[in-house]
Amino acid sequence: MDSHGLYWTLWMLLCFGQYLGDDLQFSEPANGAIGGYVVLIPDYPPYTSIDVIQWHFGTTLIMTDQSGEITVSPGYGGRITFDRRSLALVLWDLRLSDSGKYRLTVVTSASAQLTGETSLQVFERITDVKLIGPEEILIEDESIANITSEGTGHITSVQWMKDKIPLSSSDRIFFSSDNRSLLISPVQRSDTGDYQCIYSNPGTSMTRKISLVINYGPDNISIAGPNVVNVGDPVSLVCSASSQPPASFAWRFNGTEIGVTTKTFTINQTDLTHSGEYDCVIKNSITIYFAVVFHPLLVKEGGGEGSEGGGGGWLTTGAIAGIVIGAIVAVAGICGLIVYLTTTKIPELNL
Ligand SMILES: *[C@@H]1O[C@H](CO)[C@@H](O)[C@H](O)[C@H]1NC(C)=O
Ligand SMILES: *[C@@H]1O[C@H](CO)[C@@H](O)[C@H](O)[C@H]1NC(C)=O
Ligand SMILES: *[C@@H]1O[C@H](CO)[C@@H](O)[C@H](O)[C@H]1NC(C)=O
Ligand SMILES: *[C@@H]1O[C@H](CO)[C@@H](O)[C@H](O)[C@H]1NC(C)=O
Ligand SMILES: *[C@@H]1O[C@H](CO)[C@@H](O)[C@H](O)[C@H]1NC(C)=O
């Protein structure tokens, strides 16, 4: 079969390639950090029996393995580990002066000499990375979030992630030219999350995290529930809004507070006096915005079984008019409020 032939060719290459070429390959240069360790390892060890293995740093001999007997040069005692099977050299307690070229030499039982070279760069450690985030409360579309970072050591790159996904600049997200500070202007609710700042060099990295919470709302407001019910039926009206922090609710009937402050308002058994206009005042204590949603309810004298076909499924013209008026009042109320807040907040912002 075809694949059989392919495997055979690959096997031949693996076995005899080492005799044909005289190089031990290292895929990429190594990096380390002061005090850390590094593993120098050729991509493939030779498939043949070996007599002598030597690792050199520049012209300095680090160690020799002669048929399993290891001799470590002075200066490397206690600093290296060697693995004969993979030919890997582990160098511990790295110093800046360990940066340079490392050479691996192997003499096979057939007296062939194979060599390979790699290089190591040791970097200063990165320390004291700090993030300084906004201390004030952040409000959607109004606030600016400025996160600055600092750190010491040999820093070659600074990167940011939000909720573990790389953060990129946009029309609201700006990085300083050295990436050390991040500006979000203005903030939006989707900016809520964990921000990580990663200081790194090829040998080491240090990450710090900061969380942002963007306050918003209430918006996306609504009351769910029937507009028409028969006398005696129970009714539940559910007021909802998108808000951070969660909004507070206060129910009113025909404009008068009724002392219900849960998002759901329930009447176990309706009577005719329950007809009228219900509304829910939704407040956000941090953004200090509030909104009102209106919901008309008509309680009807009980018709014959089935004649009303399950009530609440359709609306009377009166209820529809009520909803339309309610919606207009709500919009007018919110507009008035926004104008009011804008005018009263300006002096605060100037402080
Ligand atoms: C962000 O904060 C840093 C440090 O407090 C300050 O130097 C920088 O000017 C601020 N950037 C903006 C755009 O406010
Ligand atoms: C800044 O961040 C961007 C995106 O994360 C990255 O491509 C770039 O290399 C960084 N620049 C520096 C100086 O760290
Ligand atoms: C609006 O509220 C509904 C629930 O009341 C929610 O499912 C939806 O995601 C919200 N939409 C926005 C844009 O916040
Ligand atoms: C409504 O019914 C629930 C249980 O069905 C009860 O806990 C509650 O007290 C009742 N409310 C009123 C006002 O009767
Ligand atoms: C509430 O208002 C509606 C219409 O605006 C009115 O018909 C009803 O009598 C009022 N109910 C009470 C208890 O005030």
Secondary structure layout plus pairing:
Layout lengths: L1 H19 L9 E4 L4 E3 L9 E8 L2 E7 L2 E4 L7 E4 L4 E4 L8 E9 L4 E11 L3 E6 L5 E2 L5 E8 L4 E6 L2 E2 L6 E3 L5 E4 L8 E9 L2 E9 L1 E11 L3 E3 L4 E10 L3 E6 L2 E2 L6 E4 L8 E8 L6 E11 L16 H34 L1
Parallel strand pairs: 1-9, 11-19, 20-26
Antiparallel strand pairs: 2-7, 3-4, 3-8, 4-5, 6-7, 8-9, 10-12, 12-16, 13-14, 13-17, 15-16, 17-18, 19-21, 21-24, 22-23, 22-25, 25-26
Bound molecules: 2-acetamido-2-deoxy-beta-D-glucopyranose (NAG) (5 copies).
Structure summarized in a few sentences:
The chain has 351 residues and is α+β, with helices and mostly antiparallel strands. Helix content is 15%, strand content 45%. The structure holds 2-acetamido-2-deoxy-beta-D-glucopyranose (5 copies).
Structure description:
- The protein is elongated and about 110 Å long.
- The chain has 2 helices and 26 strands.
- Helix content is 15%, strand content 45%.
- The termini are far apart.
- The strands form 6 sheets. It has a 6-stranded mixed β-sheet with strand order 1-9-8-3-4-5, with no helix packed on it. Strands 20-26-25-22-23 form a 5-stranded mixed β-sheet, covered by helices on one side.
- The model is unreliable at 9-21 and 305-351 (pLDDT under 50).
- It is an alpha+beta fold and 351 residues long.
- The protein has helices at residues 2-20, 317-350; strands at residues 30-33, 38-40, 50-57, 60-66, 69-72, 80-83, 88-91, 100-108, 113-123, 127-132, 138-139, 145-152, 157-162, 165-166, 173-175, 181-184, 193-201, 204-212, 214-224, 228-230, 235-244, 248-253, 256-257, 264-267, 276-283, 290-300.
- The structure holds 2-acetamido-2-deoxy-beta-D-glucopyranose (5 copies).
- The site of one 2-acetamido-2-deoxy-beta-D-glucopyranose has 5 residues, from strand 25.
